[in-house]
Hints:
With 204 residues, the protein is of the alpha+beta class. The chain has one domain (27-203): Glutaredoxin. The protein has helices at residues 2-23, 42-45, 96-112, 127-139, 151-156, 193-203, and strands at residues 35-39, 51-54, 60-63, 66-69, 85-91, 117-123, 146-149, 167-174, 177-185. The strands form 2 sheets. Strands 2-1-7-6-5-8-9 form a 7-stranded mixed beta sheet. The chain has a two-stranded antiparallel ribbon with strand order 3-4. The N and C termini lie far apart (64 Å).
Amino acid sequence: xxxxxxxxxxxxxxxxxxxxxxxxxxxxxxxxxxxxxxxxxxxxxxxxxxxxxxxxxxxxxxxxxxxxxxxxxxxxxxxxxxxxxxxxxxxxxxxxxxxxxxxxxxxxxxxxxxxxxxxxxxxxxxxxxxxxxxxxxxxxxxxxxxxxxxxxxxxxxxxxxxxxxxxxxxxxxxxxxxxxxxxxxxxxxxxxxxxxxxxxxxxx
Length: 204
């Protein structure tokens, strides 16, 4: 009986440790510091600057709808359309589910970019493995920005740390700023009716 109790206590303690590992890297809604990413794919380079910047949580204000970006914060978007929705997708070359959803995301982007939707795909591979990932997506003709974070940011910024891939953030951009509307863990069919309806409701 004594050994059974000890075993149970050890198991419970281990489960707390595991939970701590899984959830200590909970991804915040915005980075703690502004993050800059270099655009890697040629099709996106034709439309975007060489570097895109995501604002930090330190530049947000809280409202009854959630955190909003202060008006003075700057975004880098194409000048050809007014962006209303920003989708940030986190992926890696080793993640099969990430690669599976790329064609669907690309098709969605090509349909909705002129309607006010922008897509940023942030790669979380290590710098030494990153080039292979971008080359693979280049061959598929991905036209939304495939972004590489700085190596130091990849190591230190909690916004770039996650226990699950893929992860997708949906932000709404309004006259008052940036609002996180939804965080989705796991594979998405970006052509699925429910997802399309959700995005179209944010564009109204």
